[in-house]
C-alpha cells in the first residue's frame, strides 16, 4: 500500500512539474499581471525574477511594502491581450496590448530552471545579489529621487519669491498656500522623508533639512539646503548640515 501511495505521489509531482514547464511565456505574463492587479503580490511576483525578493519578506515587511505595490500596480488595466510572442533559447519577449495604450508593449522573460519568469537578466542578477532587501532598496532609490525633486522645487521657489519680496524667504506652509509646492508636503512628510524648513526671524535666510522617516527602509541619504545650494550625506538618519558634501546626482 505504501509503495502505491509513493508511486501516485511521484506521478502527481512529475505531472505538476511538466505542466509548470509547459507554461508559455504568454501565459506567465498574463498570470503575473492578473495577480498583481488583484493585489495577490506574493503569487504575482512568483511568476517573475523578483520571486527571490518577495519570498524572503516577513509578514510585517510585506505589509509595509503593500502601499507601494498598490500604488505601482493600481493602473494595470482589466483588459490585456497578447499580440505576439518571440522565444530565443532561454529568453523571450511577449507583446501585450494594454487597454488604453495604442501600441503593444514588449515584456521580457527569462527561462530559469525550465520555468519562464517575467523580467530580464539584469533584474534577475540584482535580486540574486540583494535578496529580500531588493524592494526596500528600490523604494529608497525612488524616494531619494523624489526627495531631491521636491527639494529643488522648494529651493527654486525660495529663490523666486526672495527676488519678489525683497530678499525674504517663505515658510513651508506659505509655499504650500501659494501653490509653489505640493500640498502633499504640508505636514512635513512626503515620499518617505521628513522635511523641516526653518526661516530666520527676519526672513532673510533659511535652511532645509530632509531626513528619511525610517533609515534603511525609506531612504539613506540625508539632505541639507540653503541659499548656497544642496548638500547630502549618509548619516544613518541624522540631519545633514552646511558642512556636508555638495550633493552629486547619480549618473544613469
Order of helices and strands: HHHHHEEEEHHHEEEEE
Gyration radius from CA atoms, angstroms:
24 Å
**Helical/strand content category:** alpha+beta
> Count the strands?
9
What is the first-to-last residue Cα distance? Answer: 63 Å
Q: Any low-confidence stretches, pLDDT <50, length ≥5?
A: 1-21
Q: Give the C-level CATH assignment of the largest domain.
A: Alpha Beta
Morphology call: elongated
CATH fold category name of the largest domain: Nuclear Transport Factor 2, Chain: A
Strand content: 15-25%
CATH architecture identity of the largest domain:
Roll
Question: For the largest beta sheet, what order do the strands appear in spatially?
Answer: 5-6-7-8-9
Helical content, roughly? 40-55%
Number of domains: 2
Number of helices: 8
Main sheet specs: 5 strands, antiparallel
Overall pLDDT: 89
Task: Write up this protein.
With 252 residues, the protein is an alpha+beta fold. It has two domains: 2-119, Roll (Nuclear Transport Factor 2, Chain: A), CATH 3.10.450; 136-234, Fructose-1,6-Bisphosphatase, Chain A, domain 1 (2-Layer Sandwich), CATH 3.30.540. Helices cover 41% and strands 23% of the residues. It has eight helices and nine strands. A five-stranded antiparallel sheet has the order 5-6-7-8-9, covered by helices on one side. The N and C termini lie far apart (63 Å).
